[in-house]
Amino acid sequence: MGAKQTDHRLAVDTDTNIKKMVEVALKFSTQVFENTTSRSAYSSVDRLLAMMDSSDPHIIIEVLLVFQVMGKRSRFLSNRLSPDLQKRLVEKLAALTECWGGRLREVKLTDCIKPSLALAQPLFPLSFTNSSGQSVHIPKPDDSMPLLLVVEETLKKFDGDDADRASLVARLRLLRAFEDQTHRVDWVIARLLAMSTLLAVYSRCGSEELAAMVPQLPPLGFIEQTCSLLHVKDDVHERVDMIKALRTLTAICSNETKPHRMDRQVDEMLPTTIAELL
After folding, report:
1. Which tens digits make up the pLDDT trace of 1-31?
2. Which runs of consecutive H residues, i.e. helices, occur in 52-180?
3. Is 241 exposed, middle or buried (0-12, 13-18, 19+ CB in 10 A)?
4. 141: preceding bond cis by omega (within 30 degrees)
5. CA 218 to CA 98: how far, in whole Å?
6. Are 223 and 265 spatial neighbours (Cβ–Cβ below 8 Å)?
7. What is the reported pTM?
8. Where are the domains of the chain?
9. First-residue to last-residue Cα distance in the chain
10. Do residues 217 and 201 lie in contact, with contact meaning Cβ atoms separated by under 8 Å?
């Protein structure tokens, strides 16, 4: 329902009633996956992947929460999902974690949740390089232009594959309203969820082809930035949720092979975890 496209827009992005129903359905699905291991409950993965093209961060976050629980509760995503769907999932998760590169590379997660953010240089025009090494410069899209239309028009300029499309969607979606604090906070949350889910899938993945698609996990400096989120005051923004950071760090710890980095994570996590429990 929510993934149906009309004029390069998902129904969930154009109809408020559909959005509300989809959000409720996704929240319910998260609870279902928390409490069942029935394979029949996993039949909607293709529709979840389609909804990851939404321009609404709230929808993306709810979809990622469903995938996160799937990855935690079973090996379905890593071992039983069809190769095509598994490839699409990894591409979209990787795109969400990597879209913070380029001119956002030096922007810290804690800076993103501040009311204002001064950037060293404008985000547009965006220079995008596809998987074949071809580059294109993308001017700032008009706000009224559908995100997916911008992506399709850009892809016509070079031979882009599915991974390029996923990367373009994630990058343009993040940058279009980056000056807005709530927009930045929402995509910080989405990045944390995508990282922890990707780690869960990657750690159980037996496919060398899929493993090669996964970016360096976690990227350099990401652990320290995520740890710093644990010390952000709750009143900075209503949507700041430390639990997302804790879950991401837990996923990193379970996959970490360098003892000195794990010691740092545990030292940062322990006081905050105890405080949450109390």
Report:
1. 555 566 788 999 999 999 999 999 999 988 8
2. 57-73, 83-98, 109-112, 147-155, 162-175
3. middle
4. no
5. 11
6. yes
7. 0.84
8. 124-177
9. 42
10. no
